[in-house]
Structure formats: structure tokens, C-alpha cells
Design goal:
- It is a single chain.
- By secondary structure, this protein is of the alpha/beta class.
- It has a domain of 103 residues: Nucleotidyltransferase, domain 5, CATH 3.30.420.10.
- It is built from 5 helices and 5 strands.
- It has a 5-stranded mixed beta sheet with strand order 3-2-1-4-5, sandwiched between helices.
- The longest helix has 16 residues.
């Protein structure tokens, strides 16, 4: 990297304090760091991250299909509440549908353990799963996505408006990450390429 003039960009992680009370509706950890699954729409994972702007914090909630690491749903908002994560899940459902054996995994944040979110999972026939308390490794795939997003896009820019954030998040997820970023865990294919390969096998 030094010979070619490339240098790592180090960033200080700034996180606002999470506010909110949990309804305490925690789920058993059904994933247990086994992030591999044999088909699409059987194991999803979600989480929330923070984006600093000149007008305050903006929050991003995502839903990832762990079969191919594709971001299939996301939502942006200025409030880190249950509606934020519900919107991301509804977006994912509208895009990919729901299988009978679908499991959704998250941390124990008050947004995911809330009565409203747990009721939505139940209503859609989705089984909930949650990480152990304070263990980011239990949701490592989504944490890895957030790390890449911030290093490759967020930390390189100062955001003045919400519209700027929306534009960059759309570009990163829909145009770059899902369609161009290759993963060693996916045989060095992109998430979309890997999913299309699965579709071909299923049709055959």
C-alpha cells in the first residue's frame, strides 16, 4: 500500500447515547454465530448504525439476507425508534417475501425487543432470534457491512442535509455493495451474482 501511495483512513467512532426503554421481549439466540444458510430468505439479520451530519444524527437500519450478504431492506430516519427498524423490515418483506421458516436475527436493542417490533415479526410469521447481551460477534455480518460502509463512503464526506445522506446510502447499497462488491465468503462473487446463481440452481 505504501509503495503505491495508499494509506489507511482511521476514524474515531462517535456514538450518541441510546435512549429508550425496552419492553424486555428478548428472543433465544438461534443463530449462535452460524451465519451460513443453504437458501435465500431463511435467515435475515438486522442492526442500526449512526451517521453524523451538520443537522444532527441520522440513523440507518438495515436487513441483510445472510445467504448472500445482500442488503434487502433499509430505512433512514432522524429518530432511533421502533418505527425505523419496522420500516426496514417491511421494505425487506416487500422486496423478498417471507418463507415459512424465516428467522430474523438482531441485537437486544430496545427497538428490536419492543412490543411493536415483536408483534410485527409474529404477524408476518417470522421467528425472532437475538444476540447475547453486549456481544457484537453474534451479529458480525451486519457489523462488517457497517464498517465497510463507513470506511468506503460515510467517513469520506461531511453531510449537510438528509438528502445527501439518502443519496449516498442508496448509491452504496444498491449500486455498489449489492452489485459490485465481491466477498470471499461468496466465492468472490457479489451478493446479487450469488443470489442469481442460487435462482438458476433452484429453477434447474
Amino acid at each position: 500500500m505504501k509503495e503505491n501511495g495508499f494509506y489507511p483512513e482511521l476514524a474515531v467512532k462517535l456514538k450518541p447515547v441510546r435512549n429508550g426503554k425496552s419492553d424486555g421481549r428478548y428472543c433465544e439466540n438461534k443463530v449462535k454465530q452460524e451465519f451460513k444458510t443453504d437458501s435465500c430468505n431463511t435467515l435475515w439479520a438486522g442492526d442500526i448504525t449512526y451517521i453524523k451530519t451538520s443537522v444532527g444524527w441520522v440513523y440507518l437500519a438495515v436487513v441483510m439476507d445472510l445467504y448472500n450478504r445482500e442488503i434487502i431492506g433499509y430505512s433512514l430516519g432522524k429518530k432511533i425508534d421502533t418505527e425505523l427498524v419496522k420500516a426496514a423490515l417491511v421494505n425487506a418483506i416487500g422486496r423478498s417475501g417471507v418463507k415459512d421458516d424465516l428467522v430474523f436475527h438482531s441485537d437486544r436493542g430496545c427497538q428490536y425487543s419492543s412490543k411493536g417490533y415483536q408483534n410485527l415479526l409474529e404477524e408476518k410469521g417470522i421467528t425472532g432470534s437475538m444476540s447475547r447481551h453486549g456481544c457484537p460477534y453474534d451479529n458480525a455480518c451486519v457489523e462488517s457491512f457497517f464498517t465497510s460502509l463507513k470506511k468506503e463512503k460515510i467517513y469520506r464526506k461531511r453531510y449537510e442535509t438528509m438528502e445527501e445522506v439518502k443519496k449516498d446510502i442508496f448509491w452504496y447499497i444498491e449500486m455498489f455493495y449489492n452489485r459490485k462488491k465481491r466477498h470471499s465468503a461468496l466465492e468472490y462473487m457479489t451478493p446479487v451474482e450469488y443470489r442469481l446463481k442460487y435462482d438458476e440452481k433452484r429453477i434447474a
